[in-house]
Amino acid sequence: MNAARNVPILKTDLLLLHPPGTYDFRDRRDIYFPFLGTSGDVPITPLYEYFPIGFATLKRFLSDRDHEVKIINVSTLLLRYPQIDMNALIHAFDSLLIGIDLHWMVHVQGSLALAEQIKKIRKDIPLIFGGISATYYAEQLIRYPFVDMVMRGYDTHEPMSCLLDTLKQHKRVDAIPNLLWKSKDGQICNNGISHSPQIYTCGAAWEKQPSSLTKKISTIREFLSTQNVGCSYNCGWCGGSRDAFKRIYKQKKSVMRKPLQEIEQEFDSLKKVSEIDKYYFYSIGSYNETKRRMGFFLDKVGETNFKSVGYEQYHLTSEKVLKTMVKANMRTVITLSPESHDLKVAKLAGRGVYTNDEMEKWIEKALNHGIYKVDVWYFVGMPEQDEKSVMETVDYCRHLLHLFKGNAVNPMICPMIPFLDPGSSFFEDPEKYGYRLYHKTLEEHRFAMTRASIINRINYETKMLTREDLVRVGYKAVRRLMEEKAAVGLLPDSWVNKYIGKIDDALEFIPIVHEADCISDEKDRQRELERLGDEILLRNNSILFGGVANQAFPVNREIGGRWFDEIGWEEEVFTAFHNNIV
Amino acid sequence: MDIKSTLRNYIVTEIMHERDLSVLADDTALIEGGIIDSMSLIQLVLVIKEKFGVEVAEEELDIENFKTLNSLTGYILSKIEGK
User: Fold this and answer.
1) Is A375 helix (H, G, I), strand (E, B) or coil?
2) b (16+ CB within 10 A) / e for A144-158
């Protein structure tokens, strides 16, 4: 307890902080966060609350080596407790090191703004960044005065352990592999990148799960796991794809796999979770697995009594594997992501390995084998994809809905906003693939995320779709698809009508904010945005604090209970930091 | 068939994939017992609309209304009576 401030001390060796997409997002009258129910497996707000799974594996690895690690998801914390005084909270930090992730670029502004605020208050605690984007932009990142270190690489477990040992012994950090750092006099020092293990070292320990506040009907309970880092496949838009992985980490191999004993340990920890039979388990990256490893993984799934299990699949899964999946769990959900119904567009996006006809026949077989549900994901913003093509994808979704009646097949569509991943092939060579970039540097991306208009935040346009088009066509496609789902009885009318109402409001308000945000004279722009401030704030509060919905379950659910809703300490601890108390 | 029997029949056969209707007692916990999840909830809401003409609004998705067969029946009855 800090007696002077009458608040607890938040003591740990390593404090990992996951920033919101925008920090501080509370009471913002100058940035509009329009509603868009995502198509992903777990609902999120426009703050992109999920943290990289590396946070969870780091926590386990370092804990096993006697380093105490706590994770605070700052998005979750502030969404659940909007009254928290962040300055008071930062004063209470007592750690050897603070780590902030910059994995997905969408967190660029949030991560930098949070780091800046921490450094203002706690100059004494060194601050380190890590993640894919942090590695990609390491040289630019280290130049921000409030960033002390950047840990580069796809597997930083061992270097982070060395770093904590070194800090505990008050030694110099110049022997820590992969570290880019600043000396006390501000000199940038590069230790080189020598730690590149040919495996993904460590699994997570899932025993303790974030609690859920919810009194509403449907609590989100989900685990996520990956068996590897990198990818065998080469989707041009993806910063985690085969070529992007090789490019960013300068590796010959594009997939590093978790040892089987680590996968086994991860499942052992899952078996210890209270009421595991109420959890959905989502497996990403299993499409990268060899037959033998996939067989092992499915055996482990079968031993763990999940409520349901989801697998994202790149190819149409063989009947043999489908049968094993169903045997492992009766409620198996397969996610296919062809990205477009148009094979030409799908191929350019890095998919297109099956035709629509082949997919339909496969779905029929999969359902006959006992697959519980098939989700089909489509994307807006792919090469050669114009508005007509996007709306034809929605037409095709309608066809799927009529072909497979009931709720067994659920197509979803989403625009790729705000960013095309830095490091991806399309980002690196935009002209070749029909893209034009608006933001390239770290600072350009950071600044973009401070723009009032979502259109101005987007970092690309295609030959076919401008930034305005990406937003308008994307929303329009989601809107029409939701209408189709109501029409076939997949979703209740009243829920869809409410969902569509939010989309319509966004479609109406986005151009108003955009027009104001594009006023060239700064004073005039600020005046106009200030005039819109009340309306922006009203909408933001409703979107951010009203719960989370996605296209699969388009009803707001309360924040909490998702695997990434970790806040480090018991909820009671944070009540001491409420504005009205401190 | 009355409301409770219709609901029981649907939940047991379509959600629990069982044949014996007695596996679902009037006071069995539907949500906390893990019988109804988000996927099956959507189906249940659609069935409630189809069979009883009752529209379940987003704000009525309260754990108390869907707690057990008894509470769900009570909720539907109150909606029908309130029409």
Assistant:
1) strand
2) beebbbbbbbbbbbb
Q: How far apart are CA A382 and CA A384, in angstroms?
A: 7
| Token output for A155 | 């597997």
Check A216 against B62: CB less than 8 A apart.
Answer: yes
Mutation to test the A interface, candidates B10, B31, B39, most A Cβ within 10 Å: B39
Minimal Cα distance from B35: which residue of A? A278
CB contact under 8 A, A218 and B38: yes
Q: What is the mean pLDDT of residues A126-133?
A: 98
For the cut 90, the answer to whether the pLDDT of residue A517 exceeds it is: yes
CB contact under 8 A, B58 and A555: yes
Find which of B58, B59, B61, B71 to mutate to test the A interface (most A CBs within 10 Å of its CB).
Answer: B58
Predicted local confidence at residue A571, as pLDDT = 86
Mean pLDDT across A82-102: 97
From CA A20, how far away is CA A41, in angstroms rounded?
Answer: 19
Q: How far lies A3's CA from each of A342, A560, A576, in Å?
A: 65, 31, 12
Locus of tokens 């996006």: A349
pLDDT of residue A580: 56
Give the residue carrying structure tokens 């105490």.
Answer: A68
Q: How confident is the model at residue A582 (pLDDT cuts 50, 70, 90)?
A: very low
**Euclidean distance between the first and final Cα of chain A, in Å?**
13
Phi (first) and psi of residue A351, to 5 degrees: -110, -130
Lowest mean pLDDT among A499-503, A513-517, A526-530, A547-551: A547-551
How is the beta sheet containing A69-73 ordered, strand by strand? A69-73, A10-18, A93-101, A127-130, A149-151, A179-182, A188-190
Mean pLDDT of chain A: 94
| Residues A336/A371, Cβ–Cβ less than 8 Å | no
Query: Tell me, what DSSP letter sits at residue B47?
Result: H
A407: distance to nearest CA of chain B, Å?
8
**Regions of chain B short of the pLDDT cut 50:** none
- In angstroms, the first-to-last Cα distance of chain B is 21
Cα(A375)–Cα(A359) distance, integer angstroms: 12
* B61 vs A contacts (CB less than 8 Å): 216-218, 555
Percent of chain A whose predicted confidence (pLDDT) is above 70 = 96
**DSSP labels for A48-62?**
--PPPHHHHHHHHHH
Q: Are strands A332-339 and A188-190 parallel, antiparallel or unpaired?
A: unpaired
Per-residue pLDDT of A394-443, as tens digits, reads 999 999 999 998 789 999 999 999 999 999 999 999 999 999 999 999 99
d(CA A516, CA A514) in angstroms, rounded, equals 5
Close Cβ partners of A473 (under 8 Å, ≥ 6 residues apart):
A380, A387, A390, A391, A415, A465
Average of per-residue pLDDT across A88-110 = 97
